[in-house]
Write a structure and sequence with these properties.
It is a single chain. With about 190 residues, the chain is α/β, with parallel strands linked by helices. The protein folds into 2 domains: about 35 residues, no CATH class; about 140 residues, Rossmann fold, CATH 3.40.50. Helix content is about 35%, strand content about 10%. It is built from 6 helices and 6 strands; from the N terminus they run E-E-H-E-H-E-H-E-H-E-H-H. It has a 4-stranded parallel beta sheet with strand order 3-4-5-6. A two-stranded antiparallel sheet has the order 1-2. Bound molecules: iron/sulfur cluster. Iron/sulfur cluster (SF4) binds next to helix 4.
């Protein structure tokens, strides 16, 4: 491995099978220490697989967001899947009625862990202008939302910013899933102490 500035080089174990170590130009070695969980989070944040739960007009903006113009590949989130078992990011784009809520929950439950949720548009976030008995007044009544993207409809840029925000949260361990896991671990450690 070498960076573009040529400051680091990695005499890789390509031929000899020796342990690889990064070196600076003066020959001194460079070590990177981290926790396994941090390393996994870095991989996860850069390889999000979205499941679009599009129920209304916001889904059209989601389609724009996926186009090459916005190049979501830059953020490693372009592999859209329509099977929850192959997805870890649920993007709810549109109005969710009471009739659709159980379907949304079922999909969320079937998704691979760790999993994240983005609520796209005011309808998904709060029910929007549908102050009606049959519309869910915020999907966080049913699934844990990590990022709320406001707007009616939100622009593709806004959703892009939402994905970047989610990536920051994953790096810092701030998503709902990560916090729940941390709380459970702390509780177990406390119970064992
Ligand atoms: S927030 Fe606006 S654009 Fe999105 S689903 Fe609701 S009405 Fe449609």
């Amino acid at each position: 491995m070498s960076n573009s500035g040529g400051k680091l080089s990695l005499p890789a174990a390509r031929s000899g099978g020796q342990a690889a170590a990064a070196r600076q130009p003066d020959g001194s070695q460079v070590f990177l220490t981290t926790k396994l969980e941090k390393l996994l989070d870095a991989a996860r944040k850069n390889s999000l697989w979205p499941f679009p739960f599009g129920t209304a007009c916001c889904a059209i903006e989601f389609m724009s967001f996926m186009m090459s113009h916005y190049d979501i590949s830059r953020f490693g989130a372009e592999v859209v899947r329509f099977s929850p078992r192959q997805s870890d990011l649920l993007i709810v784009a549109g109005t969710v009625t009471d009739k659709m809520a159980p379907v949304m929950v079922r999909i969320y439950e079937q998704m691979a862990e760790p999993k994240y949720v983005i609520s796209m548009g005011v309808c998904a976030c709060t029910g929007g202008f549908y102050r009606a008995y049959h519309v869910v007044q915020g999907i966080d009544e049913f699934v844990p939302v990590d990022v709320y993207v406001p707007g009616c409809p939100p622009t593709p840029e806004a959703l892009l910013q939402g994905v970047v925000k989610l990536q920051e949260m994953i790096s810092k361990g701030e998503t709902h899933y990560q916090r729940t896991l941390a709380e459970r671990r702390a509780a177990r450690a406390q119970a064992g102490a």
